[in-house]
Amino acid sequence: MIDRILERIEIAGDGCWRWTGATFSNGYGQFRGRRTHRLIYEALVGPIPIGSVLDHTCHNNDDTCPGGNCRHRLCCNPDHLLATSQRSNVLASRHTYASQAKARTACINGHALEGRNLYVDKRGCRSCMACRAVGKRAYRAEGRIA
């Protein structure tokens, strides 16, 4: 199967492996109902971790690309694919939500989201340490944990 997929890939000048076969309506390459970049990644790199998506780093690094349904969705080069969380993938994009989240410098209570007051969880979600501490104290006061 991998040989049939590789026959439909054209190597572009930017290093992208562009899929030349059928595509889904959202612009991603498809082979037998599966996204080609995922098939290539799994064949050449290994399984995609559970809960992860593949981020096209070639898209993130191309300042001329406006985002959305673009040519980078056809890229199957495993060196251009990074297994990451959906949140990290969106934050790396040019999506409106991503720009708003990256631009946020304070929490809802006005505390600065920087330095020792910034907490980043394993999913990449940012939060305020001061507000987290208040929440933990309130939770303990209710007697839920010792």
Concise overview:
This protein is of the alpha+beta class. Helices cover 32% and strands 16% of the residues. A hairpin with a 2-residue loop joins strand 3 and strand 4.
What does this structure look like?
The chain has 146 residues and is an alpha+beta fold. It folds into two domains: 2-103, no CATH class; 105-146, no CATH class. Helix content is 32%, strand content 16%. The protein has six helices and eight strands, in the order αββββαβαβααββα. The strands form four sheets. Strands 1-2 form a two-stranded antiparallel sheet. A hairpin with a 5-residue loop joins strand 1 and strand 2 (17-19). The N and C termini lie far apart (56 Å). The mean pLDDT is 85.
